[in-house]
Design goal:
By secondary structure, the chain is mainly alpha-helical. Helix content is 32%, strand content 6%.
Length: 636
Protein backbone atom coordinates (compact mmCIF):
# COMPACT_ATOMS: atom_id res chain seq x y z
CA UNK A 1 0.00 0.00 0.00
CA UNK A 2 1.00 3.64 -0.37
CA UNK A 3 0.84 5.53 2.90
CA UNK A 4 -0.03 9.20 2.96
CA UNK A 5 1.11 11.12 6.01
CA UNK A 6 -1.50 13.71 6.82
CA UNK A 7 0.66 15.05 9.64
CA UNK A 8 3.31 16.16 7.15
CA UNK A 9 4.08 19.82 6.89
CA UNK A 10 2.67 20.96 3.56
CA UNK A 11 5.90 21.80 1.79
CA UNK A 12 7.73 20.91 -1.34
CA UNK A 13 11.34 20.30 -1.88
CA UNK A 14 11.93 17.84 -4.57
CA UNK A 15 15.27 16.93 -5.17
CA UNK A 16 17.67 16.53 -5.97
CA UNK A 17 17.75 16.77 -6.69
CA UNK A 18 19.73 16.67 -9.01
CA UNK A 19 17.95 18.62 -6.74
CA UNK A 20 18.73 22.07 -5.71
CA UNK A 21 19.51 24.37 -2.83
CA UNK A 22 16.50 26.38 -3.82
CA UNK A 23 14.44 23.75 -2.05
CA UNK A 24 15.36 25.67 1.03
CA UNK A 25 14.16 28.80 -0.60
CA UNK A 26 11.77 28.55 -3.50
CA UNK A 27 8.19 28.90 -2.55
CA UNK A 28 8.46 32.18 -0.72
CA UNK A 29 6.44 35.04 -2.13
CA UNK A 30 5.65 37.02 -5.21
CA UNK A 31 6.07 39.02 -8.31
CA UNK A 32 6.23 39.77 -11.94
CA UNK A 33 6.12 43.40 -11.04
CA UNK A 34 2.77 43.19 -9.25
CA UNK A 35 2.20 43.53 -5.55
CA UNK A 36 1.05 40.49 -3.64
CA UNK A 37 -2.44 40.55 -2.12
CA UNK A 38 -2.54 41.08 1.61
CA UNK A 39 -3.24 38.11 3.80
CA UNK A 40 -1.51 34.87 4.70
CA UNK A 41 1.70 34.26 2.75
CA UNK A 42 2.16 30.61 1.97
CA UNK A 43 5.74 29.41 1.94
CA UNK A 44 7.22 26.03 1.13
CA UNK A 45 9.99 26.42 3.65
CA UNK A 46 11.34 28.79 6.20
CA UNK A 47 14.74 29.67 4.82
CA UNK A 48 17.64 31.60 6.18
CA UNK A 49 17.42 35.37 5.59
CA UNK A 50 20.30 37.46 4.27
CA UNK A 51 20.65 41.21 4.75
CA UNK A 52 21.85 42.96 1.61
CA UNK A 53 25.44 44.20 1.78
CA UNK A 54 27.23 46.68 -0.43
CA UNK A 55 30.70 45.63 -1.54
CA UNK A 56 32.91 47.79 -3.74
CA UNK A 57 34.63 44.84 -5.40
CA UNK A 58 34.84 41.07 -5.02
CA UNK A 59 37.06 39.98 -2.09
CA UNK A 60 40.64 39.35 -3.06
CA UNK A 61 43.72 37.98 -1.33
CA UNK A 62 45.22 39.48 1.76
CA UNK A 63 48.48 41.40 1.29
CA UNK A 64 50.07 39.35 4.05
CA UNK A 65 48.74 35.97 2.90
CA UNK A 66 50.03 33.00 4.90
CA UNK A 67 52.20 31.42 2.24
CA UNK A 68 52.56 30.05 -1.25
CA UNK A 69 49.88 28.04 -2.96
CA UNK A 70 50.84 24.40 -3.08
CA UNK A 71 48.74 21.34 -2.24
CA UNK A 72 47.86 21.06 1.45
CA UNK A 73 49.97 18.77 3.61
CA UNK A 74 48.24 15.91 5.41
CA UNK A 75 47.81 15.79 8.37
CA UNK A 76 49.51 19.07 9.29
CA UNK A 77 46.91 21.19 7.50
CA UNK A 78 43.16 20.72 7.74
CA UNK A 79 40.27 22.41 5.99
CA UNK A 80 38.69 25.34 7.76
CA UNK A 81 35.00 24.81 8.41
CA UNK A 82 34.02 27.92 6.43
CA UNK A 83 36.34 27.17 3.51
CA UNK A 84 38.60 30.18 3.95
CA UNK A 85 42.33 29.89 3.23
CA UNK A 86 41.85 26.96 0.91
CA UNK A 87 43.53 29.22 -1.62
CA UNK A 88 46.35 30.94 0.26
CA UNK A 89 46.76 33.81 -2.19
CA UNK A 90 43.04 34.54 -2.46
CA UNK A 91 41.71 33.16 0.84
CA UNK A 92 38.06 33.91 0.12
CA UNK A 93 37.76 31.71 -2.97
CA UNK A 94 35.19 28.97 -2.41
CA UNK A 95 34.43 30.07 1.13
CA UNK A 96 30.99 30.40 2.69
CA UNK A 97 29.12 33.66 2.33
CA UNK A 98 30.55 35.05 -0.91
CA UNK A 99 28.74 35.64 -4.23
CA UNK A 100 28.35 33.01 -6.89
CA UNK A 101 30.65 33.34 -9.88
CA UNK A 102 29.35 34.19 -13.34
CA UNK A 103 30.36 32.56 -16.60
CA UNK A 104 27.98 34.68 -18.68
CA UNK A 105 27.20 38.32 -17.95
CA UNK A 106 23.86 38.88 -16.22
CA UNK A 107 20.83 39.96 -18.25
CA UNK A 108 18.99 42.01 -15.65
CA UNK A 109 16.43 44.53 -16.80
CA UNK A 110 18.65 47.30 -15.46
CA UNK A 111 22.33 47.75 -14.68
CA UNK A 112 21.92 47.28 -10.93
CA UNK A 113 19.83 44.13 -11.03
CA UNK A 114 16.79 45.65 -9.37
CA UNK A 115 14.76 44.42 -12.36
CA UNK A 116 15.05 40.66 -13.00
CA UNK A 117 15.76 39.19 -16.43
CA UNK A 118 12.99 38.56 -18.98
CA UNK A 119 10.20 40.13 -16.94
CA UNK A 120 8.28 40.56 -20.21
CA UNK A 121 8.73 36.89 -21.12
CA UNK A 122 6.03 34.26 -20.91
CA UNK A 123 4.77 33.37 -17.44
CA UNK A 124 6.91 30.56 -16.02
CA UNK A 125 3.68 28.74 -15.20
CA UNK A 126 2.63 28.98 -18.86
CA UNK A 127 6.01 27.52 -19.85
CA UNK A 128 5.63 24.76 -17.30
CA UNK A 129 2.20 23.86 -18.63
CA UNK A 130 3.20 23.98 -22.28
CA UNK A 131 6.71 22.50 -22.26
CA UNK A 132 7.39 20.68 -18.97
CA UNK A 133 4.08 18.94 -18.20
CA UNK A 134 4.55 15.16 -18.17
CA UNK A 135 0.91 14.38 -17.52
CA UNK A 136 -0.20 11.06 -16.07
CA UNK A 137 2.30 8.88 -17.91
CA UNK A 138 5.35 7.55 -16.11
CA UNK A 139 8.54 7.34 -18.19
CA UNK A 140 11.13 5.13 -16.46
CA UNK A 141 14.81 5.74 -17.21
CA UNK A 142 15.76 3.87 -20.36
CA UNK A 143 19.21 3.16 -18.95
CA UNK A 144 17.99 1.93 -15.56
CA UNK A 145 19.23 4.87 -13.51
CA UNK A 146 18.06 4.37 -9.95
CA UNK A 147 16.32 6.88 -7.74
CA UNK A 148 19.56 6.96 -5.77
CA UNK A 149 21.01 8.87 -8.73
CA UNK A 150 18.91 12.00 -8.23
CA UNK A 151 19.13 11.57 -4.45
CA UNK A 152 22.94 11.73 -4.64
CA UNK A 153 22.53 14.79 -6.84
CA UNK A 154 20.47 16.49 -4.16
CA UNK A 155 22.87 15.40 -1.42
CA UNK A 156 25.86 16.66 -3.43
CA UNK A 157 24.13 19.91 -4.30
CA UNK A 158 23.54 20.61 -0.63
CA UNK A 159 27.32 20.27 -0.16
CA UNK A 160 27.98 22.87 -2.86
CA UNK A 161 25.47 25.70 -2.58
CA UNK A 162 22.68 27.25 -0.58
CA UNK A 163 21.00 30.47 -1.63
CA UNK A 164 19.38 32.50 1.17
CA UNK A 165 16.39 34.83 0.86
CA UNK A 166 16.79 38.59 0.67
CA UNK A 167 15.97 40.56 3.81
CA UNK A 168 13.89 42.64 3.72
CA UNK A 169 11.74 40.45 1.53
CA UNK A 170 11.50 41.28 -2.17
CA UNK A 171 8.39 39.62 -3.60
CA UNK A 172 8.73 38.24 -7.13
CA UNK A 173 5.66 36.06 -7.61
CA UNK A 174 4.70 34.16 -10.74
CA UNK A 175 1.55 35.19 -12.60
CA UNK A 176 -0.81 32.26 -13.10
CA UNK A 177 -2.46 32.16 -16.56
CA UNK A 178 -6.17 32.85 -16.64
CA UNK A 179 -8.21 29.71 -16.06
CA UNK A 180 -5.31 27.49 -14.98
CA UNK A 181 -7.13 24.29 -13.92
CA UNK A 182 -5.02 23.88 -10.79
CA UNK A 183 -4.23 27.38 -9.62
CA UNK A 184 -7.04 29.48 -11.15
CA UNK A 185 -10.05 27.21 -11.73
CA UNK A 186 -12.44 30.12 -11.17
CA UNK A 187 -10.73 32.16 -13.94
CA UNK A 188 -10.07 35.14 -11.69
CA UNK A 189 -6.90 36.11 -13.52
CA UNK A 190 -5.40 37.27 -10.21
CA UNK A 191 -3.73 34.13 -8.89
CA UNK A 192 -0.01 34.08 -8.09
CA UNK A 193 2.59 31.47 -7.20
CA UNK A 194 4.68 32.97 -4.42
CA UNK A 195 8.42 33.54 -4.57
CA UNK A 196 10.88 35.91 -2.90
CA UNK A 197 14.08 37.15 -4.48
CA UNK A 198 17.41 35.71 -3.36
CA UNK A 199 19.80 37.14 -0.81
CA UNK A 200 22.58 39.11 -2.44
CA UNK A 201 25.41 41.56 -2.14
CA UNK A 202 25.73 44.72 -4.21
CA UNK A 203 29.13 44.24 -5.82
CA UNK A 204 30.48 47.25 -7.74
CA UNK A 205 26.90 48.52 -8.07
CA UNK A 206 25.33 45.25 -9.25
CA UNK A 207 23.27 42.57 -7.50
CA UNK A 208 25.16 39.30 -7.00
CA UNK A 209 23.47 36.39 -5.21
CA UNK A 210 25.30 34.77 -2.30
CA UNK A 211 26.31 31.19 -1.64
CA UNK A 212 25.71 30.62 2.06
CA UNK A 213 27.96 27.52 2.29
CA UNK A 214 31.37 26.40 1.03
CA UNK A 215 31.78 25.65 -2.67
CA UNK A 216 34.03 22.64 -2.13
CA UNK A 217 33.05 18.98 -2.02
CA UNK A 218 34.18 18.94 1.60
CA UNK A 219 31.33 17.32 3.52
CA UNK A 220 29.98 20.66 4.73
CA UNK A 221 26.47 19.18 4.67
CA UNK A 222 27.77 16.68 7.27
CA UNK A 223 29.89 19.04 9.37
CA UNK A 224 28.46 22.51 8.73
CA UNK A 225 29.96 25.66 7.23
CA UNK A 226 30.31 27.63 10.47
CA UNK A 227 32.06 26.92 13.75
CA UNK A 228 28.99 26.97 15.99
CA UNK A 229 27.08 24.40 13.96
CA UNK A 230 30.20 22.24 13.60
CA UNK A 231 30.66 22.18 17.37
CA UNK A 232 26.99 21.37 17.97
CA UNK A 233 27.22 18.30 15.73
CA UNK A 234 30.26 16.80 17.49
CA UNK A 235 30.42 14.72 20.64
CA UNK A 236 33.46 16.85 21.60
CA UNK A 237 35.05 14.00 23.51
CA UNK A 238 37.99 11.72 22.84
CA UNK A 239 36.01 9.62 20.35
CA UNK A 240 36.13 12.18 17.53
CA UNK A 241 32.63 11.10 16.57
CA UNK A 242 29.48 12.95 15.53
CA UNK A 243 26.38 12.98 17.72
CA UNK A 244 23.59 10.51 17.09
CA UNK A 245 20.21 9.90 18.68
CA UNK A 246 18.54 6.62 19.61
CA UNK A 247 18.65 4.07 16.83
CA UNK A 248 21.93 5.48 15.50
CA UNK A 249 19.95 8.26 13.83
CA UNK A 250 20.73 11.95 13.44
CA UNK A 251 20.69 14.20 16.51
CA UNK A 252 17.71 16.46 17.08
CA UNK A 253 17.81 20.26 16.82
CA UNK A 254 17.27 20.84 20.52
CA UNK A 255 19.23 24.11 20.67
CA UNK A 256 17.41 26.02 17.95
CA UNK A 257 20.03 26.12 15.20
CA UNK A 258 18.87 27.41 11.79
CA UNK A 259 16.84 24.62 10.19
CA UNK A 260 14.20 24.21 7.53
CA UNK A 261 11.32 24.67 7.83
CA UNK A 262 11.86 26.15 11.33
CA UNK A 263 14.56 26.40 13.96
CA UNK A 264 11.96 26.09 16.71
CA UNK A 265 10.96 22.44 16.32
CA UNK A 266 13.14 20.06 18.37
CA UNK A 267 11.56 17.05 16.65
CA UNK A 268 13.46 17.92 13.48
CA UNK A 269 16.88 16.44 12.85
CA UNK A 270 20.07 18.50 12.81
CA UNK A 271 22.84 18.09 10.25
CA UNK A 272 25.54 20.19 8.66
CA UNK A 273 22.99 21.50 6.16
CA UNK A 274 19.72 23.17 7.11
CA UNK A 275 17.71 21.28 4.46
CA UNK A 276 18.23 17.80 5.92
CA UNK A 277 14.56 17.24 6.83
CA UNK A 278 13.19 18.03 3.37
CA UNK A 279 12.25 14.47 2.46
CA UNK A 280 12.76 11.04 3.96
CA UNK A 281 15.43 9.68 1.61
CA UNK A 282 17.51 12.82 2.16
CA UNK A 283 17.33 12.25 5.92
CA UNK A 284 18.32 8.64 5.29
CA UNK A 285 21.45 9.43 3.29
CA UNK A 286 22.47 12.12 5.79
CA UNK A 287 22.16 9.50 8.52
CA UNK A 288 24.22 7.07 6.45
CA UNK A 289 27.12 9.50 6.19
CA UNK A 290 27.09 10.36 9.89
CA UNK A 291 27.37 6.62 10.56
CA UNK A 292 30.20 6.40 8.03
CA UNK A 293 32.12 9.20 9.77
CA UNK A 294 31.73 7.41 13.08
CA UNK A 295 32.88 4.15 11.50
CA UNK A 296 36.13 5.76 10.37
CA UNK A 297 36.53 7.54 13.71
CA UNK A 298 36.41 4.18 15.49
CA UNK A 299 38.87 2.66 13.02
CA UNK A 300 41.29 5.57 13.38
CA UNK A 301 41.06 5.59 17.17
CA UNK A 302 41.70 1.85 17.34
CA UNK A 303 44.79 2.16 15.14
CA UNK A 304 46.05 5.29 16.92
CA UNK A 305 45.14 5.02 20.62
CA UNK A 306 47.23 8.10 21.46
CA UNK A 307 45.21 10.42 19.21
CA UNK A 308 43.17 13.21 20.73
CA UNK A 309 39.50 13.53 19.89
CA UNK A 310 40.29 16.43 17.55
CA UNK A 311 42.91 14.39 15.69
CA UNK A 312 40.49 11.49 15.26
CA UNK A 313 37.78 13.85 14.05
CA UNK A 314 39.98 15.62 11.48
CA UNK A 315 41.39 12.34 10.12
CA UNK A 316 37.87 10.97 9.69
CA UNK A 317 36.66 14.26 8.19
CA UNK A 318 39.48 14.20 5.61
CA UNK A 319 38.59 10.63 4.62
CA UNK A 320 34.90 11.51 4.39
CA UNK A 321 35.55 14.48 2.08
CA UNK A 322 37.66 12.17 -0.08
CA UNK A 323 34.91 9.56 -0.18
CA UNK A 324 32.33 12.13 -1.30
CA UNK A 325 34.72 13.32 -4.00
CA UNK A 326 35.53 9.79 -5.16
CA UNK A 327 31.87 8.68 -5.37
CA UNK A 328 31.00 11.81 -7.32
CA UNK A 329 33.83 11.55 -9.87
CA UNK A 330 34.19 7.77 -10.08
CA UNK A 331 30.51 6.72 -10.03
CA UNK A 332 28.12 9.64 -10.45
CA UNK A 333 29.62 11.95 -13.09
CA UNK A 334 30.47 9.19 -15.62
CA UNK A 335 26.75 8.37 -15.78
CA UNK A 336 25.67 12.00 -15.83
CA UNK A 337 28.20 13.37 -18.32
CA UNK A 338 29.74 10.33 -20.02
CA UNK A 339 32.89 8.40 -19.14
CA UNK A 340 35.38 10.85 -20.70
CA UNK A 341 33.72 14.21 -20.03
CA UNK A 342 35.90 15.16 -17.04
CA UNK A 343 39.61 15.32 -17.97
CA UNK A 344 42.08 13.38 -15.80
CA UNK A 345 43.22 15.11 -12.64
CA UNK A 346 46.47 17.04 -13.17
CA UNK A 347 46.89 18.48 -9.68
CA UNK A 348 45.94 21.58 -7.73
CA UNK A 349 45.88 24.85 -9.67
CA UNK A 350 45.77 27.99 -7.47
CA UNK A 351 44.78 30.14 -10.46
CA UNK A 352 41.41 28.38 -10.76
CA UNK A 353 38.39 29.81 -8.95
CA UNK A 354 36.43 26.85 -7.50
CA UNK A 355 33.39 28.98 -6.73
CA UNK A 356 29.92 27.80 -7.73
CA UNK A 357 28.62 29.54 -10.82
CA UNK A 358 25.24 31.20 -10.74
CA UNK A 359 24.30 29.25 -13.87
CA UNK A 360 25.06 25.97 -12.11
CA UNK A 361 23.17 26.84 -8.91
CA UNK A 362 20.12 28.57 -10.36
CA UNK A 363 19.60 26.42 -13.46
CA UNK A 364 21.94 23.61 -14.50
CA UNK A 365 22.03 21.44 -11.40
CA UNK A 366 18.26 21.62 -11.05
CA UNK A 367 18.16 19.07 -13.85
CA UNK A 368 17.34 16.24 -11.46
CA UNK A 369 13.79 17.49 -11.01
CA UNK A 370 13.06 15.73 -14.30
CA UNK A 371 13.89 12.36 -12.68
CA UNK A 372 11.63 12.57 -9.64
CA UNK A 373 9.09 9.75 -9.13
CA UNK A 374 5.56 10.17 -7.79
CA UNK A 375 6.27 7.66 -4.98
CA UNK A 376 9.20 6.92 -2.71
CA UNK A 377 9.17 3.16 -2.35
CA UNK A 378 10.27 1.53 0.90
CA UNK A 379 11.38 -2.03 0.31
CA UNK A 380 12.35 -5.03 2.39
CA UNK A 381 15.29 -7.35 1.71
CA UNK A 382 13.24 -9.33 -0.83
CA UNK A 383 12.55 -6.18 -2.82
CA UNK A 384 8.93 -6.17 -1.69
CA UNK A 385 7.01 -3.34 -0.05
CA UNK A 386 8.16 -2.97 3.54
CA UNK A 387 5.67 -3.17 6.36
CA UNK A 388 5.72 0.62 6.77
CA UNK A 389 4.51 1.06 3.19
CA UNK A 390 5.51 3.43 0.42
CA UNK A 391 5.06 7.20 0.60
CA UNK A 392 3.77 9.46 -2.12
CA UNK A 393 6.40 12.08 -2.90
CA UNK A 394 4.19 14.96 -1.89
CA UNK A 395 3.66 13.37 1.53
CA UNK A 396 7.34 12.59 2.15
CA UNK A 397 8.39 16.15 3.01
CA UNK A 398 9.29 17.16 6.56
CA UNK A 399 8.21 13.93 8.23
CA UNK A 400 11.30 12.96 10.27
CA UNK A 401 9.13 10.65 12.37
CA UNK A 402 8.98 8.30 9.37
CA UNK A 403 12.72 7.76 9.81
CA UNK A 404 12.51 7.76 13.60
CA UNK A 405 9.85 5.06 13.53
CA UNK A 406 11.18 2.87 10.72
CA UNK A 407 14.87 3.65 10.27
CA UNK A 408 16.73 4.23 7.03
CA UNK A 409 17.10 0.78 5.48
CA UNK A 410 13.83 0.51 3.58
CA UNK A 411 14.12 4.06 2.22
CA UNK A 412 17.69 3.57 0.98
CA UNK A 413 16.89 0.13 -0.41
CA UNK A 414 13.95 1.60 -2.30
CA UNK A 415 16.14 4.35 -3.75
CA UNK A 416 18.71 1.81 -4.97
CA UNK A 417 16.30 -0.79 -6.36
CA UNK A 418 13.74 1.38 -8.15
CA UNK A 419 14.18 3.10 -11.49
CA UNK A 420 14.04 6.90 -11.69
CA UNK A 421 12.06 8.82 -14.27
CA UNK A 422 13.82 9.41 -17.59
CA UNK A 423 15.92 12.58 -17.72
CA UNK A 424 14.20 14.76 -20.32
CA UNK A 425 12.27 18.02 -20.59
CA UNK A 426 9.33 16.63 -18.59
CA UNK A 427 8.53 16.77 -14.86
CA UNK A 428 5.82 14.80 -13.07
CA UNK A 429 2.65 16.68 -12.16
CA UNK A 430 3.07 15.89 -8.48
CA UNK A 431 5.70 18.63 -8.20
CA UNK A 432 4.16 20.90 -10.82
CA UNK A 433 0.67 21.06 -9.33
CA UNK A 434 1.52 20.98 -5.66
CA UNK A 435 -1.49 22.43 -3.87
CA UNK A 436 -1.90 23.78 -0.35
CA UNK A 437 -5.55 22.69 -0.42
CA UNK A 438 -8.24 22.44 -3.08
CA UNK A 439 -7.52 23.85 -6.57
CA UNK A 440 -7.46 27.64 -6.41
CA UNK A 441 -6.35 27.77 -2.77
CA UNK A 442 -2.68 28.29 -3.58
CA UNK A 443 0.36 26.13 -4.05
CA UNK A 444 3.39 26.05 -6.25
CA UNK A 445 5.00 24.53 -9.29
CA UNK A 446 8.65 23.48 -9.06
CA UNK A 447 9.53 24.04 -12.75
CA UNK A 448 7.93 27.50 -12.59
CA UNK A 449 10.05 28.31 -9.56
CA UNK A 450 13.19 27.15 -11.38
CA UNK A 451 12.44 29.42 -14.33
CA UNK A 452 11.56 32.39 -12.12
CA UNK A 453 14.65 31.86 -9.96
CA UNK A 454 16.82 32.02 -13.07
CA UNK A 455 15.21 35.34 -14.00
CA UNK A 456 15.65 36.61 -10.43
CA UNK A 457 19.39 35.84 -10.67
CA UNK A 458 19.67 37.62 -14.00
CA UNK A 459 20.60 34.48 -15.93
CA UNK A 460 20.75 35.24 -19.65
CA UNK A 461 18.75 33.43 -22.30
CA UNK A 462 19.64 29.96 -23.57
CA UNK A 463 21.45 31.19 -26.68
CA UNK A 464 23.63 33.59 -24.70
CA UNK A 465 24.58 30.76 -22.35
CA UNK A 466 25.60 28.61 -25.32
CA UNK A 467 27.80 31.35 -26.71
CA UNK A 468 29.43 31.94 -23.31
CA UNK A 469 30.60 28.32 -23.40
CA UNK A 470 31.85 28.48 -26.99
CA UNK A 471 28.81 26.79 -28.55
CA UNK A 472 27.05 28.09 -31.64
CA UNK A 473 23.72 29.83 -31.07
CA UNK A 474 20.65 27.98 -32.26
CA UNK A 475 18.53 29.54 -34.97
CA UNK A 476 15.33 27.55 -34.68
CA UNK A 477 13.66 25.22 -32.26
CA UNK A 478 14.68 22.19 -34.30
CA UNK A 479 18.28 23.14 -33.45
CA UNK A 480 17.43 22.71 -29.75
CA UNK A 481 15.64 19.38 -30.10
CA UNK A 482 15.15 17.02 -33.06
CA UNK A 483 11.79 15.91 -31.63
CA UNK A 484 8.84 17.63 -33.37
CA UNK A 485 6.74 17.45 -30.20
CA UNK A 486 9.40 19.29 -28.19
CA UNK A 487 9.80 21.87 -30.97
CA UNK A 488 6.06 22.50 -30.97
CA UNK A 489 5.94 22.84 -27.21
CA UNK A 490 8.76 25.40 -27.21
CA UNK A 491 7.25 27.37 -30.09
CA UNK A 492 3.89 27.55 -28.31
CA UNK A 493 5.27 29.86 -25.61
CA UNK A 494 8.57 31.32 -26.84
CA UNK A 495 8.59 33.66 -29.89
CA UNK A 496 12.21 32.77 -30.79
CA UNK A 497 15.15 30.75 -29.51
CA UNK A 498 16.58 33.96 -28.07
CA UNK A 499 13.68 34.04 -25.61
CA UNK A 500 14.12 30.53 -24.15
CA UNK A 501 14.95 30.35 -20.45
CA UNK A 502 18.23 28.47 -19.87
CA UNK A 503 16.82 25.75 -17.59
CA UNK A 504 14.16 24.90 -20.18
CA UNK A 505 16.54 24.87 -23.13
CA UNK A 506 19.10 22.73 -21.33
CA UNK A 507 16.52 20.07 -20.50
CA UNK A 508 15.22 19.96 -24.08
CA UNK A 509 18.52 19.15 -25.83
CA UNK A 510 19.45 15.63 -26.99
CA UNK A 511 22.19 13.81 -25.11
CA UNK A 512 25.89 14.00 -26.03
CA UNK A 513 29.15 12.20 -25.20
CA UNK A 514 27.59 9.04 -23.79
CA UNK A 515 25.98 10.86 -20.86
CA UNK A 516 22.39 11.78 -20.11
CA UNK A 517 22.55 15.56 -20.79
CA UNK A 518 22.76 17.77 -23.87
CA UNK A 519 25.59 19.97 -25.10
CA UNK A 520 24.81 23.16 -23.16
CA UNK A 521 24.09 21.48 -19.86
CA UNK A 522 27.18 19.33 -20.34
CA UNK A 523 29.31 22.45 -20.82
CA UNK A 524 27.99 24.11 -17.64
CA UNK A 525 28.44 20.98 -15.53
CA UNK A 526 31.90 20.08 -16.86
CA UNK A 527 33.08 23.64 -16.19
CA UNK A 528 31.85 23.51 -12.61
CA UNK A 529 33.09 20.05 -11.72
CA UNK A 530 36.53 20.67 -13.19
CA UNK A 531 36.90 23.96 -11.31
CA UNK A 532 35.64 22.65 -7.98
CA UNK A 533 38.18 19.82 -8.24
CA UNK A 534 41.23 21.59 -9.65
CA UNK A 535 40.80 24.68 -7.48
CA UNK A 536 40.65 22.71 -4.21
CA UNK A 537 43.97 22.63 -2.35
CA UNK A 538 42.63 19.76 -0.23
CA UNK A 539 41.46 17.57 -3.13
CA UNK A 540 41.96 14.02 -1.91
CA UNK A 541 44.26 12.89 -4.73
CA UNK A 542 46.69 15.71 -3.97
CA UNK A 543 46.18 15.98 -0.20
CA UNK A 544 46.06 12.43 1.13
CA UNK A 545 49.02 10.02 1.09
CA UNK A 546 48.88 7.35 -1.61
CA UNK A 547 47.71 4.56 0.70
CA UNK A 548 44.76 6.65 1.84
CA UNK A 549 43.99 7.63 -1.75
CA UNK A 550 43.80 3.94 -2.60
CA UNK A 551 41.60 3.32 0.42
CA UNK A 552 39.24 6.14 -0.55
CA UNK A 553 39.03 4.96 -4.16
CA UNK A 554 38.09 1.49 -2.93
CA UNK A 555 34.93 2.89 -1.33
CA UNK A 556 31.69 2.98 -3.30
CA UNK A 557 28.27 4.19 -2.30
CA UNK A 558 27.04 0.58 -2.21
CA UNK A 559 29.97 -0.36 0.07
CA UNK A 560 29.02 2.42 2.47
CA UNK A 561 25.35 1.43 2.46
CA UNK A 562 26.15 -2.22 3.17
CA UNK A 563 28.61 -1.30 5.93
CA UNK A 564 26.25 0.97 7.84
CA UNK A 565 22.84 -0.66 7.39
CA UNK A 566 21.20 -4.07 7.23
CA UNK A 567 21.18 -3.85 3.43
CA UNK A 568 23.21 -6.52 1.65
CA UNK A 569 23.68 -7.91 -1.82
CA UNK A 570 20.09 -7.21 -2.84
CA UNK A 571 21.36 -3.84 -4.11
CA UNK A 572 23.84 -3.71 -6.97
CA UNK A 573 27.50 -2.81 -6.70
CA UNK A 574 26.68 0.49 -8.42
CA UNK A 575 23.96 2.12 -6.36
CA UNK A 576 23.14 4.50 -9.20
CA UNK A 577 21.94 1.70 -11.49
CA UNK A 578 18.87 -0.25 -10.45
CA UNK A 579 19.62 -3.98 -10.82
CA UNK A 580 17.47 -5.82 -13.30
CA UNK A 581 14.85 -7.82 -11.52
CA UNK A 582 12.59 -10.65 -12.47
CA UNK A 583 9.55 -8.41 -12.34
CA UNK A 584 6.99 -11.21 -12.16
CA UNK A 585 8.67 -12.74 -9.08
CA UNK A 586 6.28 -11.10 -6.65
CA UNK A 587 6.90 -13.73 -3.99
CA UNK A 588 10.62 -12.96 -3.95
CA UNK A 589 11.60 -16.60 -4.36
CA UNK A 590 13.86 -16.05 -7.44
CA UNK A 591 11.70 -18.54 -9.35
CA UNK A 592 8.25 -18.14 -10.86
CA UNK A 593 5.47 -20.31 -9.46
CA UNK A 594 1.72 -20.27 -8.93
CA UNK A 595 2.38 -18.29 -5.76
CA UNK A 596 3.30 -15.28 -7.89
CA UNK A 597 -0.15 -15.34 -9.50
CA UNK A 598 -1.68 -15.56 -6.02
CA UNK A 599 0.42 -12.56 -4.98
CA UNK A 600 -0.62 -10.49 -8.02
CA UNK A 601 -4.36 -10.78 -7.51
CA UNK A 602 -4.62 -9.12 -4.05
CA UNK A 603 -2.11 -6.46 -5.09
CA UNK A 604 -4.26 -5.57 -8.08
CA UNK A 605 -7.45 -5.63 -6.01
CA UNK A 606 -5.90 -3.37 -3.37
CA UNK A 607 -4.64 -0.82 -5.91
CA UNK A 608 -1.01 -1.53 -4.97
CA UNK A 609 1.31 -0.02 -7.60
CA UNK A 610 3.43 -3.16 -7.57
CA UNK A 611 0.69 -4.48 -9.85
CA UNK A 612 1.18 -1.54 -12.27
CA UNK A 613 3.06 -3.62 -14.83
CA UNK A 614 2.59 -1.16 -17.71
CA UNK A 615 3.94 1.73 -15.56
CA UNK A 616 1.14 4.16 -16.39
CA UNK A 617 0.28 4.97 -12.77
CA UNK A 618 -3.12 3.25 -12.97
CA UNK A 619 -4.27 -0.34 -12.61
CA UNK A 620 -6.17 -1.72 -15.62
CA UNK A 621 -6.61 -5.00 -17.46
CA UNK A 622 -3.45 -4.15 -19.38
CA UNK A 623 -1.45 -4.63 -16.19
CA UNK A 624 -2.73 -8.18 -15.95
CA UNK A 625 -1.70 -8.80 -19.56
CA UNK A 626 1.76 -7.32 -18.91
CA UNK A 627 2.12 -9.50 -15.82
CA UNK A 628 1.14 -12.57 -17.84
CA UNK A 629 3.77 -11.67 -20.46
CA UNK A 630 6.44 -11.17 -17.78
CA UNK A 631 5.53 -14.48 -16.15
CA UNK A 632 5.70 -16.30 -19.48
CA UNK A 633 9.15 -14.76 -20.15
CA UNK A 634 10.46 -16.34 -16.95
CA UNK A 635 13.55 -15.44 -14.94
CA UNK A 636 17.09 -15.77 -16.25
Amino acid sequence: MVRTCTHAVVALVASAGLCHSSFAQDGGTKSEGTSEPKGERRSSLVQRPYLTRIVQAPPQGLPDGPGTDSPATFPDEVRTINGRFNNLTRPWLGSAGIPFTRIAAPAYGDAAGRIPARVDGPSPRAVSQAVIAQGDDLIPSRTGDSNMFWLWGQFLDHDLDETPTAMPLEPFAIAVPLGDPWFDPASTGTQLISLDRSGHQIVAGRREQVNRITAFIDGSLIYGSDAARAAELRTLDETGELKVSDGDLLPFNVNGFPNAPTADDPSLYLAGDTRVNEQITLIAIHTLFVREHNYWAREIRAANPGFSGDEVFEYARAIMAGIMQAITYNEFLPILLGPDAIPPYAGYNPDIDPGISNMFAAAAFRMGHSMLPPFLQRLDSRGLEADEGHLSLRQAFFVPAEIGDYGIDSALRGACLTVAQQFDHLVIDDVRNFLFGMPGMGGFDLPSLNIQRGRDHGLPDFNTVRQAFGLDPVGDFDDISPAPEVQARLASVYPTCDDVDPWVGMLAEPTVDGGMVGATLNAVLVDQFVRVRDGDRFWYEAYLPSDLVDLVNAQTLSTIIRRNTGIGTEIGDNAFIAPERCVADLAGATALTLIDFLEFQPLFAAGDLRADFDSDGALTVFDFLQFQNAFDAGCD
